[in-house]
Design goal:
Helix content: 40-55%
Number of helices: 15
Shape: globular
Distance between the termini: 20 Å
Number of strands: 12
Radius of gyration: 22 Å
């Protein structure tokens, strides 16, 4: 696990807030919470003041009322305690219990969840009292540190970082990835009580097949012959696996409506769900890396020209074009050259000569250093 996540979680400690750790199943949320528990013990926090609840295993806790009563009964005499709720998605309407515990008990609350929807619900209930830590599968920097090889980049592009088993025979990796992808999908279907598992599978695979392309959600729902309401609900559930990236008009500074793109949280899961070309894999890796580093990401539009990504952090924008391998370097850098800004990068697989004030970095350099 990158040091970033434990250090970030420690930054939230003692904040008057609910700390939400979200991320796809298997990304390491439970490990992070367990490590944080050990850290509390090492700081001499009394064991009885650390309440760790595995919501997936404790069958008594299946609704918000039972969770609230369970915690209240254990902590009624405490002046302060740490409440760590793992896999809180398993508790129906758990956001109500979290809200009540935050308001009515002297608790410092940490929760893990796979559902982006749930993280948003909690944030809406406590808009000024939430800290969200979004976890992503291991980065290329982590992978290459543990498994250095000449084909490290290609392996990462196709197999991602979620499984952490790059030393196994690559012949069986696709099967392992498919199994992992379908386990995650089954978990989402179960947790959200989705009645049409096949519809969910088709929606997820459609998003995967169209990674890096503008998506018309209404058109997809029409093709699948399902109601817009049902489609939107199933699509929201799929946000555990995909991130919806809005379009941004660079000239006007406005967010555009429609034509959003979707990117998968892990390249290996993407490869397991659909067959996509190398450019789509490159774009997916770049997008998720930007999100991992805490950027707000959008897909840029400059007049009639497209820019792969506009990444903003701390008020500063960075413009990134991923080389499509089809058009010339001059054509690929044209929209970047038209933008009056210093932070402009063309990302390629191998070093290339660029034009104007556009800087070229290889994908490997970007994933490791930029």
């Amino acid at each position: 696990m990158e040091n970033f996540y434990p250090e970030r979680l420690l930054e939230f400690k003692n904040n008057f807030s609910v700390k939400i750790i979200s991320g796809v199943r298997g990304v390491g949320k439970t490990t992070l919470l367990e490590d944080f528990t050990e850290r509390l013990r090492s700081e001499d926090v009394p064991a009885e003041e650390i309440i760790f609840v595995d919501c997936a295993e404790d069958k008594r806790l299946r609704d918000f009322q039972s969770l609230y009563e369970f915690v209240s009964a254990k902590t009624s005499d405490f002046e302060k305690f740490f409440l760590l709720l793992d896999d809180v998605d398993c508790v129906a309407e758990c956001e109500k219990a979290i809200n009540a515990l935050f308001v009515g008990t002297p608790a410092e609350i940490y929760v893990t969840c796979s559902s982006e929807q749930l993280a948003e619900k909690i944030s809406v209930l406590l808009p000024d009292n939430c800290d969200v830590l979004k976890m992503y599968p291991p980065s290329f920097a982590e992978y290459v540190k543990d498994f250095p090889s000449e084909d490290a980049l290609q392996s990462y592009l196709h197999f991602g970082g979620l499984l952490r088993v790059f030393d196994v025979d690559k012949k069986i990796l696709p099967a392992l990835l498919r199994g992992t992808a379908y386990e995650i999908m089954f978990d989402i279907v179960e947790r959200n009580s989705l009645q049409k598992a096949e519809l969910f599978r088709v929606i997820v695979q459609t998003l995967a097949q169209n990674v890096g392309r503008p998506v018309s959600l209404n058109k997809i729902s029409d093709v699948l012959s399902c109601s817009r309401i049902a489609f939107r609900h199933y699509l929201d559930c799929g946000e555990e696996l995909f991130r919806k990236i809005p379009r941004f008009d660079i000239k006007t500074g406005n967010t555009l409506i429609g034509g959003e793109k979707f990117y998968c949280v892990d390249n290996g899961i993407l490869s397991a769900l659909a067959t996509v070309d190398e450019v789509a894999l490159m774009e997916n890796a770049v997008c998720i890396e930007l999100l991992r580093r805490g950027y707000d990401v959008s897909c840029g539009r400059f007049g009639a020209m497209n820019v792969s990504f506009v990444a903003e952090r701390d008020g500063e924008k960075t413009f990134i074009q991923v080389f499509d391998g089809k058009n010339s370097i001059r054509r690929n850098t044209r929209p970047l050259r038209a933008i009056d800004d210093a932070n402009k990068f063309l990302i390629t697989l191998k070093p290339e000569k660029t034009f104007g004030d556009v800087r070229n970095v290889t994908l490997q350099e970007f994933l490791l250093t930029l």
